[in-house]
Amino acid sequence: MRAFRVAYDGRPFYGFQRQPDVPTVEGTLFDGLRALDVLGPDEPKPPGYAAAGRTDAGVSAVAQTLAFDAPDWLAPRAFNAELPGTVRVRASAEAPDGFHATHDAVRRVYRYHLHAPASGTDASPGTDAMLGRARDAAARLSGEHDFHNLTTDDEGTVRDLECTVDRDGEFLVVTAAAGGFPRHFVRKLVAVIHGVATGEATGADGTDRLDRVLSDESLADEAGVPAAPPEPLVLVGVDYPGLTFEPDPVATATLREVFADRRRDGLVRARVADEVLDGV
Questions:
Q1: How far apart are alpha carbons 91 and 246 in whole angstroms?
Q2: How far from 132 is each of 127, 212, 247, CA to CA, in Å?
Q3: Pseudo-torsion of CA 61, 62, 68, 73, nearest 10°?
Q4: Would the annotation count 110 as a binding residue?
Q5: Which fold has domain 107-223?
Q6: C-beta separation of 209 from 196 below 8 A
Q7: What is the pLDDT of residues 170-189, one digit of tens each?
Q8: Would you say 14 and 35 are in contact if contact means Cβ atoms under 8 Å apart?
Q9: What is the pTM of this model?
Q10: What does CATH list as the number for 2-105+242-269?
């Protein structure tokens, strides 16, 4: 059994999980394995295969992890030979028999680069006030809660969340860590924090909105929580006890080239590129 760390630019893909007739990260990885004769033409997936999680369309990753029964020669460099530049296998690790990339992950970390310049006017809080409100909201949302109002899933909505916010120039950097995340959770979490930070949420400090989000009441229609855009979101960490990944320097170099190009595509995209490059 071998585990692989995968980084990718999520913009060209309709999410991680393979789907018919549209490009996905998982489908691209499987195409690469077929080209290498690791996966047969009629095999849906490699034996023992599992991935750490499913990212939405447009979401990028530094630390997506997949594992399967791979031949000894399948190093990251060999894997990358049959992958596009937007997907790079950057490290690998020997995993014990029975290892499961989904179930054995004990912690996942996402980071969202929220473009939130502060005007400092009466209608829009200044930098310090915005950061203070965002941090208060993150603290209120941290801990174990039923987050049924921040996901489209009906099950697995109780999570123990660690959420922090830092200011970096024109961005509020929201970091969310938990054992796992239900669908659309981080993007809805960011939307709530942004609403409190800017003063758009009801109540003088947004506490009314937070109380409703965390209540047993199911919010829908106008009262529901929209999902923030996916492009500024990056999966930056997946932790496995006892697993040590060996980075491939050639794979890291090519990944840097791909995301260096992304820097020139706009302010938010440049921030995500920096996140990826810092992570490798």
A1: 5
A2: 9, 20, 38
A3: 130
A4: yes
A5: Alpha-Beta Plaits (3.30.70)
A6: yes
A7: 889 999 999 999 999 999 99
A8: no
A9: 0.89
A10: 3.30.70.580
